[in-house]
């Protein structure tokens, strides 16, 4: 039978007989029958959606565990990972054998080899030392600022001015404004002169290693993207300066509160002006589409704070009034401004972290997560560079295996 009509009229055309080939389907958004054209009392069904386009009421299925992504293996890896500890950065001594750094990581086996090396442990220990140096401190707190760090901040400010001098072009593409390539080319051309502004005379030849880390810190000019791998390159550049003795341990607080803050200002401007595409984003399951380190440094700042707790990120007044003093709050505020919709939907991981009872646990959890989610991921670390300052160590087992293979092959 036909479905009932609300207001049948004499002018309606006669309905064809109901057959298997003629059913009154109502898969349309109007309130009329698609076959006879008459009005119907049946409400229109919702619009169909595909597997790649979930319905509007979709909610990501996520575990209630705090600061853990949904993958079970990754959860377990983070839980079992010990909290990385700060290490002193050994300063190199002459003779120096600087060389052009190259890529060495191509597989998961290479990641395992890298993770077991002293290089990896010391580099991660340097990041932890930077985090510890800013613990309980506001960005505006007085600290030792060396002439070297003042020069580096000035260089980053110059790069910000380059953005103002190279406006984005009009284009239809949402991501990847082509003017970024012009900016990146100018930055790359100036990279070595920038290094020579602050390097001591006896290590000026280190530019062969420093420049590649520096130029890779601001995104990829071919893909016009930026992600945590590029951010790690900036940390590697700072680590190289520490290895050279150009940045000393007493400079660490200013390295975060002055240098890294200026770097973050530059990267946010590049992302907004040139619409850099997130590189290797975890989607809603990442902390942020592009950054990780400011969350580590920012959570360290807030450890033992009397009033602000992890749940304070949901207070807009706190974000507006204190984001200029605390990196973590600054990151949350930036995320809320550039992403639309409820915070728990577009940033569920950050929302989960807000339920952690104290900042100390947040900081230690983020350090473990950085090790697992960044430094143990082939898609990220395959672009990492190794030279003389950041050495690629071949484990003894690999050397012995290679020697045995050579002996057997020769026999």
UniProtKB/TrEMBL annotation:
<keyword id="KW-0963">Cytoplasm</keyword>
<dbReference type="Pfam" id="PF03095">
    <property type="entry name" value="PTPA"/>
</dbReference>
<comment type="similarity">
    <text>Belongs to the PTPA-type PPIase family.</text>
</comment>
<dbReference type="GO" id="GO:0005634">
    <property type="term" value="C:nucleus"/>
</dbReference>
<keyword id="KW-0413">Isomerase</keyword>
<keyword id="KW-1133">Transmembrane helix</keyword>
<dbReference type="GO" id="GO:0000159">
    <property type="term" value="C:protein phosphatase type 2A complex"/>
</dbReference>
<keyword id="KW-0472">Membrane</keyword>
<dbReference type="InterPro" id="IPR043170">
    <property type="entry name" value="PTPA_C_lid"/>
</dbReference>
<dbReference type="GO" id="GO:0008160">
    <property type="term" value="F:protein tyrosine phosphatase activator activity"/>
</dbReference>
<keyword id="KW-0697">Rotamase</keyword>
<feature type="transmembrane region" description="Helical">
    <location>
        <begin position="385"/>
        <end position="410"/>
    </location>
</feature>
<dbReference type="GO" id="GO:0005737">
    <property type="term" value="C:cytoplasm"/>
</dbReference>
<protein>
    <recommendedName>
        <fullName>Serine/threonine-protein phosphatase 2A activator</fullName>
        <ecNumber>5.2.1.8</ecNumber>
    </recommendedName>
</protein>
<feature type="region of interest" description="Disordered">
    <location>
        <begin position="1"/>
        <end position="26"/>
    </location>
</feature>
<dbReference type="InterPro" id="IPR004327">
    <property type="entry name" value="Phstyr_phstse_ac"/>
</dbReference>
<keyword id="KW-0812">Transmembrane</keyword>
<dbReference type="GO" id="GO:0007052">
    <property type="term" value="P:mitotic spindle organization"/>
</dbReference>
<dbReference type="GO" id="GO:0003755">
    <property type="term" value="F:peptidyl-prolyl cis-trans isomerase activity"/>
</dbReference>
<comment type="function">
    <text>PPIases accelerate the folding of proteins. It catalyzes the cis-trans isomerization of proline imidic peptide bonds in oligopeptides.</text>
</comment>
<dbReference type="InterPro" id="IPR037218">
    <property type="entry name" value="PTPA_sf"/>
</dbReference>
């Amino acid at each position: 039978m036909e479905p009932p009509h609300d207001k049948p009229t004499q002018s309606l055309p006669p309905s064809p007989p109901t057959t298997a080939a003629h059913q009154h389907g109502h898969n349309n958004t109007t309130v009329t029958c698609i076959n006879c054209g008459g009005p119907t009392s049946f409400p229109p069904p919702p619009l169909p959606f595909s597997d790649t386009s979930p319905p509007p009421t979709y909610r990501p299925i996520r575990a209630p565990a705090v600061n853990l992504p949904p993958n079970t293996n990754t959860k377990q890896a983070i839980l079992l990972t010990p909290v990385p500890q700060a290490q002193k950065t050994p300063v190199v001594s002459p003779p120096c054998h600087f060389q052009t750094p190259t890529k060495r990581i191509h597989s998961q086996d290479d990641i395992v080899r890298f993770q077991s090396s002293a290089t990896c442990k010391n580099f991660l220990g340097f990041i932890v030392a930077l985090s510890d140096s800013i613990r309980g401190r506001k960005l505006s707190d007085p600290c030792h600022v060396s002439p070297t760090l003042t020069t580096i901040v000035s260089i980053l400010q110059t790069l910000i001015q380059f953005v103002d001098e190279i406006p984005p072009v009009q284009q239809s593409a949402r991501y990847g404004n082509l003017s970024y390539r012009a900016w990146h080319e100018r930055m790359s051309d100036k990279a070595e002169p920038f290094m020579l502004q602050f390097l001591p005379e006896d290590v000026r030849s280190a530019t062969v290693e420093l420049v590649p880390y520096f130029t890779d810190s601001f995104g990829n000019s071919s893909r016009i993207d930026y992600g945590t791998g590029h951010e790690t390159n900036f940390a590697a550049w700072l680590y190289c300066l520490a290895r050279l003795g150009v940045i000393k341990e007493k400079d660490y607080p200013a390295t975060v509160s002055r240098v890294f803050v200026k770097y973050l200002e530059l990267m946010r401007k590049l992302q907004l002006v040139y619409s850099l595409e997130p590189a290797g984003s975890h989607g809603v399951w990442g902390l942020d589409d592009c950054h990780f380190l400011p969350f580590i440094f920012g959570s360290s700042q807030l450890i033992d704070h009397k009033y602000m707790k992890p749940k304070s990120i949901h207070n807009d007044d706190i974000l507006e009034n204190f984001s200029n003093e605390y990196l973590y709050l600054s990151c949350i505020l930036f995320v809320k401004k550039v992403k639309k919709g409820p915070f728990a939907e577009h940033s569920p991981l950050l929302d989960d972290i807000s339920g952690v009872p104290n900042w100390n646990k947040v900081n230690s959890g983020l350090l473990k997560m950085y090790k697992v989610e960044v430094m143990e991921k082939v898609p990220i670390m395959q672009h990492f560079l190794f030279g003389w300052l950041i050495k690629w160590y071949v484990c003894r087992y690999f050397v012995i295996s290679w020697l045995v293979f050579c002996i057997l092959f020769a026999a």
